[in-house]
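Problem: given the chain below (400 residues), write out its structure.
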Amino acid sequence: MASLAETDTQKVIKQYSDIAHAVFEDALIAAEKLDAEIDNFLQAPTAEGLEKTRNAWKAARAPYLQSEVFRFGNPVVDDWEGELNAWPLDEGLIDYVSAGYNHEMGNIGATANIIANRTLTIGGDSIDLTEITPELLSDLNELGGSEANVATGYHAIEFLLWGQDLNGTDAGAGNRPYTDFVTGEQCTHGNCDRRIAYLKSATRLLIENLQYMTEQWQENKPDNYRHQLFSEDENTVLTKILFGMGSLSLGELAGERMKVALEANSPEDEQDCFSDNTHNAHFYDAKGIRNVYEGNYRRINGELIQGFSIDDLIQAKNPGLHQKLSMAFENTEQKLQVMVDSAESGEMAFDQMIAEGNEKGYKIISDAITALVDQTRLIEQLAQNIGIEKLEPDAADHSF
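Solution.
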């Protein structure tokens, strides 16, 4: 068994960085595959082609979600994340919406409909929307300072591929017709050429952002974030790693992404709300936490990235706590697998689970929340065992 020597801490930081690079690179590769599938679909739009494109979007989500554990504690990721994964969004900023559309109160961009309009007036200033480009969408993201004005990222693309989910807490996802991307007389809902431009621009911007973050974790680059991380005090970096694990587990995943939706019985608060892919979003977020703890990551090409980990550190120092942690991570994955199995079998999607009075759905989500909270408490004990006095993972103002 490895000792708790200084070199072991360095190995943990190296493996953490190697996994970060691999997962961001996989997210980039999957986004490029999505872009290629979009190109194929747009050449001759069909219902079958739209379904293939939707599946490519779902596939692109899996590696990205496993990267979210690197967000908390690493400012370079947290400052960048909003352009890729911000949610929930006011759909009316982007495209047409249903007559009964409820947007965030006071949001000046909620009815902007970028696709249908060539100009946008905000506070007396006129914004030229004539040409939809990645640069324009980046500028429009969080328009007017509102976090609901999500113009970019996975969820903007998701909305364009699925459209609004008008089913509430009943079965069914968004059902945008493929003809929304057909130019000429067969175009439905108007402005198909601009909808195409928006979809292409949003995907191009996604790729550019993922290229940037992949480079930030690349080895042997003297001016990137990885290099900076290795120049920091080792205990400080270990704190960042454990803070990221605990904060995603507790405040973000158990709190913002599950507890909020469950208590409000609100499909508007589910993460992948247009596609009904939320069960996978939660599963892969938790998988990312476990990846970092165990020092393992299975790449999308099947390659296993494996090395010295926090798991090894605590096993050497406190075998009893190590066993508890191993059981806790396995329990969390099992509870989330129940959620995945229910959704994938067609029995009950996440937005049905959160419906008022759905006792079975409530239990599935509550069990997952409890597992994540228990897991986080053990992560805090782990931190104390390796010399980190106060970890204080972010609870996002939730009580558990």
